[in-house]
């Protein structure tokens, strides 16, 4: 036997030895082959709620004129392509929509995960609506599939995202049906909104239906659908049914604004818009949401007009900082997805416009009362018969303004509803970088132009070169 032959046998034995049971040997038995939907559901709800609460409170509250930035304020001056301390929600939407799509796919591929279909569809509808309401036309039908189909998805029209099969309203309807028809015994886990209660998810979905139908009501006849939901009465009706999860006082689950260094936290003060509205209403919620200015001994509040030229210099002691609930006591705060107060304000608007047969004043009063309770402030006995009465001025303006106040934790929502209704009457800002115009959409981020150039170019051409002054579909 030659040395060459012996060497060949040794190599053959080594190859056989190394390849036999290779897959079994190299599989980590402690690592799951597929991710558990319960873990993903918890992650999507928490990550989206935590990040968008911060985004909405920083950038959204500047656009909605709840607060004013003293410095790092290009965004407050409406240079929306220069986000500072917030102002770039695009990746938050797409990362969470991608993870949510995995849950939805798992629920349809494996009967053991069928209970997750309804919540996944509702979360998809919820996040997709928030995304398109900010930006207009966005990647949707081809999005969330970069690992299997394309990394350069086309931009769908906002109308199709709302109205088509697989869109917002369709997913809400299918999500409700999936939960109503679920007969399995496996419970929903990872649910930090309703602790696995499918009835809570159905109420959430119906409140979202109300919200999105009202939002598109200038473009689509939604009266019959709204009346059906009202008549059935299965929507979020009490604060105890709200779609929320609570923050804590300490890290890691406190409100992110509390984790900023004190100089960044003190960058935000009461806006002149909010100051005037709460003062005119003699509204005690100002003491919960803001602090008296530093240069006072009589608990005065003072707001600053949005969009200042930071180079002129202002003293933080002359203006009211944000309330302790947003820094020291964030355990009193929550991530807010949908609430009873918002549902009642939407129904009050629908009744005021004749879209439903309901008592506008009753719906409005319920919304206001629940809003005070939500912010843990006692409502004055005369509030609803005096300054805060529906009949005190323009009824529609009062409804939207009260909804705007109550949604301070969701600042983007206040801005979206201003764009839709014109209320409350926001101010021309101090040193505008947008020709004294209040923006009516967010610009697509620069990364899209670099990474999805062909489809970005087509979308930009529909928005006057990605202008922030071109209305979205439901606003036209």
TrEMBL record:
Pfam assignment, any one: SusD-like_2
InterPro entries referenced in this protein's UniProt entry, alphabetically: SusD-like_2, TPR-like_helical_dom_sf
Protein name as it appears in the record: Starch-binding associating with outer membrane
Taxonomic source organism: Maribacter orientalis
């Amino acid at each position: 036997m030659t040395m060459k032959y012996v060497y060949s046998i040794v190599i053959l034995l080594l190859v056989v030895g190394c390849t036999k049971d290779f897959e079994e040997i190299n599989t980590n038995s402690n690592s799951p082959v597929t991710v558990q939907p319960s873990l993903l559901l918890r992650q999507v709800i928490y990550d989206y709620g935590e990040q968008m609460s911060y985004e909405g409170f920083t950038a959204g509250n500047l656009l909605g004129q709840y607060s004013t930035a003293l410095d790092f304020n290009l965004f407050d001056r409406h240079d929306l392509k220069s986000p500072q301390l917030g102002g770039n929600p695009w990746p938050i939407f797409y990362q969470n929509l991608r993870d949510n799509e995995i849950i939805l796919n798992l629920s349809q591929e494996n009967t053991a995960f069928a209970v997750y279909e309804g919540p996944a569809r509702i979360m998809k509808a919820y996040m997709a609506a928030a995304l398109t309401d900010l930006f207009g036309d966005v990647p949707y039908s081809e999005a969330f599939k970069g690992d299997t189909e394309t990394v350069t998805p086309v931009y769908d029209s906002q109308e199709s995202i709302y109205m088509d099969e697989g869109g917002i309203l369709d997913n809400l309807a299918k999500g409700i049906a999936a939960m109503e028809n679920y007969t399995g015994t496996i419970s929903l886990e990872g649910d930090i909104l309703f602790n696995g209660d499918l009835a809570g998810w159905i109420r959430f979905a119906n409140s979202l239906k109300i919200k999105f139908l009202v939002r598109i009501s200038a473009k689509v006849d939604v009266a019959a659908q709204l009346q059906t939901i009202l008549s059935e009465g299965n929507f979020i009706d009490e604060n105890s049914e709200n779609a929320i999860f609570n923050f804590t006082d300490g890290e890691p689950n406190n409100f992110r604004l509390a984790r900023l260094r004190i100089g960044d936290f003190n960058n935000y003060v009461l806006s002149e818009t909010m100051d005037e509205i709460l003062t005119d209403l003699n509204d005690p919620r100002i003491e919960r949401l803001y602090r008296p200015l530093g240069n006072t001994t009589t608990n005065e509040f003072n707001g600053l007009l949005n969009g200042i030229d930071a180079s002129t210099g202002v003293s933080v002691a002359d203006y009211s900082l944000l309330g302790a609930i947003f820094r020291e006591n964030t355990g009193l705060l929550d991530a807010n997805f949908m609430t009873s107060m918002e549902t009642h304000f939407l129904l009050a608007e629908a009744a005021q416009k004749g879209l439903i047969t309901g008592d506008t004043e009753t719906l409005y009063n319920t919304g206001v009362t629940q809003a005070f309770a939500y912010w843990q402030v006692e409502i004055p006995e005369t509030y609803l018969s005096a300054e805060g009465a529906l009949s005190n001025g323009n009824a529609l303006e009062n409804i939207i303004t009260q909804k705007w106040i109550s949604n301070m934790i969701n600042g983007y929502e206040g801005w979206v509803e201003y764009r839709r209704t014109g209320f409350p009457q926001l101010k021309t800002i101090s040193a505008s970088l947008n020709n004294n115009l209040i923006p009516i959409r967010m610009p697509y981020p620069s990364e899209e132009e670099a990474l999805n150039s062909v489809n970005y170019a087509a979308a930009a051409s529909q928005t006057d070169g990605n202008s922030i002054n071109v209305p979205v579909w439901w606003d036209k």
